[in-house]
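Why run this: before we spend reagent on co-expression, it is cheaper to look at a predicted model of the complex and decide which construct boundaries make sense. The entries below are exactly what would go into the expression plan.
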Amino acid sequence: MSNPKIGLIFNGVWSQYAFAKASKYRDIYTLLYIHDLEASQLDEVDALVVPFQSNHAAIAAHRDLFYDFLAKGKKIFVEGDGSATWLDARWEDRPVNNYWWVKDPKNPPVSVTDHSHPIYKGLQPRHAFWHYHGVYTQVPEHAQIIQKNVEGDVVTWQTHHFGGTFLVTTLDPIVEHGVQQITHLDNYCDRLTEWLIGVKPEGKFEIIASDYGIAV
Amino acid sequence: MSPTPIRALVISNGIEGLDSLYQATEKIQYDWVEVTPSFNPTLEGYDLLIVPNGSDHIALYRIKDTIKAYLDAGGALFCFDGWFTDWVPGYRWIMDNSQKSMDVRYKIKDDPYKLSQQFEVEDLNFSHGISGWWACGYIEPISPLGHVLIEDTWGRPLVVIDETTTAGLMVLTASAPAADLSYATTDDGAAEKAMTDLYHALLGLVSLVKQPTHV
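The model came back. Tokens follow.
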């Protein structure tokens, strides 16, 4: 039996690539280039992540593949911005507050977190939120709210309505971990990975130089 | 009489906020082309090809011969970081986390066009007092022919200007964004101004070294 794999829906963005190719995650995540995506590729993975800076128009063209995947009881994690073209929710942009922890560290923009969720259970508040990219002003009636901002808008929600588990957040752990400028994201990403497929990543986030300047 | 505006083609990866980064003026006009499964844009007629941060470097690798031919015909390219695939003639971009972003400082190295008079490199270093907001990896020349405008603390190229590897002009940055606006990356006024001023200085370079090809 092959090792469990997480498919990372990929539109050629370097930070997505840097995450999936890092030594810590490269044997767990596999890149699925959105413009070449075929149904058979989804049969080979146990869970999917849709990272920030995705091409949501391209994803929407494969909408049925994603809901068929959920219908098989599998998990999908969506981060960053979203699109009503394939999500049953309305995402709206908001200014990104990257520096609240410098300017007003006692008042983070996210004020509500359900720490009973397996990813958030045991996470320190600082590890459960860094910044978000927009909010959901409308989510499905069957959604469970995991995080809200101080204005009461939804940052993270989850539903089991489609068969498997659909976890959607405007946080951006995958892409920011690929950028490697926020130093605590192993906490979130490792819990996310373990929640998705039951595998806990080990080791350091090392970048392998031979992964760069490649032919494809 | 106003100078002929630069006619630029921006590659769009369909990501949120990208269209707000580039604002047309009397000096530049932007056209956009979306990456699709059949992505194969026509570059002829454009003075400048812009590959923003967050671009699709799988799609760009697949048209690398088209881009090389465009540059060999005298075209200009701005590539703003992250080309993990080998499509940029003569240069690789390498992601790196071996140095702490808090230690990153940018320095002007080689500036024959006096571009640094048009932006404050010191202000690229910090956003709200935190360094490294504009730092992502470095550029590795395969056979150095261009000059390094900005290098980092450790002498690694961050902005390269190359007029010799091809018949055209290549401006490559290891960091980003570089645009008219920063969107979500920073809201620090000085940092945003430095980034925008750098971008406009680079546009001035295009006007200086290249004759418009679309007239």
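Chain B has one domain: 6-209. Helices of chain B lie at 57-62, 64-72, 121-125, 189-209. Bring this page to Monday's planning discussion.
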